[in-house]
Specification:
Largest sheet: 2 strands, antiparallel
Oligomer: single chain
Number of helices: 6
Shape: globular
Structural class: mainly alpha
Strand order of the largest sheet: 1-2
Strand content: under 5%
Order of helices and strands: HEHHHHHE
Number of strands: 2
Helix content: 40-55%
Length: 131
């Protein structure tokens, strides 16, 4: 019987759980409309990196259970959060995942840290305006 696991296995499991949590948060955004006055206050690169990560979980589906395309997720979320849809969201997501260094970490690294503090990291970057 194995009573422990390596740090790498634990990290991968935590990351997978965080990716599923992120997909859940994105799903909540998809449940809103532009009239709900939600606004993204983070960077566009962060948003595209987050959406691409949620997309790769294949947990975001339509009413028939078919996985949503990345472009569909991007266009809907951008409309809901009042963000101009980028011409190449794949490039922005890739740019974000390549970030390195102490002051410029990939979104998921920062997301994991905020999640471990009991937060909803994606929703912390969304504000509601009463217009």
């Amino acid at each position: 019987m194995r009573t422990h696991f390596s740090e790498n296995e634990g990290t991968m499991m935590n990351r997978r759980q965080a990716e599923h949590q992120l997909a859940h948060e994105v799903g909540r955004v998809l449940g809103h409309t532009a009239t709900d006055n939600l606004h993204w206050k983070g960077s566009l690169v962060d948003l595209m990196e987050a959406l691409h990560t949620a997309y790769t979980t294949y947990l975001l589906t339509d009413d028939e259970g078919i996985s949503l395309s990345f472009i569909h997720i991007v266009s809907r979320v951008c409309a809901v959060l009042h963000v101009v849809t980028p011409s190449n969201p794949y490039e922005l997501a890739a740019r974000g995942s390549r970030r390195k260094g102490l002051h410029s970490l990939p979104y998921m690294t920062r997301y994991l840290r905020r999640l471990s503090a009991g937060k909803e990291p994606l929703w912390e970057q969304i504000e509601t305006s009463d217009c």
